[in-house]
Amino acid sequence: MLGDLSGKSILDLACGEGYYTRKLKQREATRVLGVDISEKMIELARQDETKEPLGIEYIIRDARELGEIGKFDMVVAAYLLNYAQTKEQLLEMCQSIYTNLKPGGRFVTLNNNPEQSLSSYSKTEKYGLIKKVSKPLHVRYTDRNDAHNRSRKKSSQC
After folding, report:
1. Which helix or strand (DSSP H or E) is residue 88 part of?
2. pLDDT, tens digit, for every residue of 25-47?
3. Looking at the domain that runs over 1-111, which CATH code has it been given?
4. One-letter-per-residue 3-state SS of 39-70
5. Contact present, 37 and 60 (Cβ < 8 Å)
6. Which Gene3D superfamilies does its entry note (predicted)?
7. Residue ranges of the chain assigned to CATH 3.40.50.150
């Protein structure tokens, strides 16, 4: 889905603690910038960057009010668009994405679909992505191909 990232500049919106941001950089992207609205998430991302430096920059910013912070070959937004509460907010996010893409650049996104059955997620297992949901609502995504993830469980609680 992402293709060859070597030599590419990538903007990771809603980067959270930088999990995917680091994956992008490890795939030989030249420049990766992580952006998240949460100061705490950026703090965690920066801590990981300090422990294992990859040359990633992180900034705290709302994706709806991003403005132009650079021109990127690719904008990645995992679990960003679902935060739009109105059509106007979704449009603001899309405008930020468009503003920061180079001509011919690519936008790649991943979102939950509330109407998608849990059984359909088994199709992603061949790519190493596993989704498990338990009660109370805990959603856990696991990349079974990632040694770092084996030692550090990632979960979101609603």
Report:
1. helix 87-99
2. 999 999 999 999 999 999 999 99
3. 3.40.50.150
4. HHHHHHHHHHHHHCCCCCEEEECCHHHCCCCC
5. yes
6. Vaccinia Virus protein VP39 (3.40.50.150)
7. 1-111
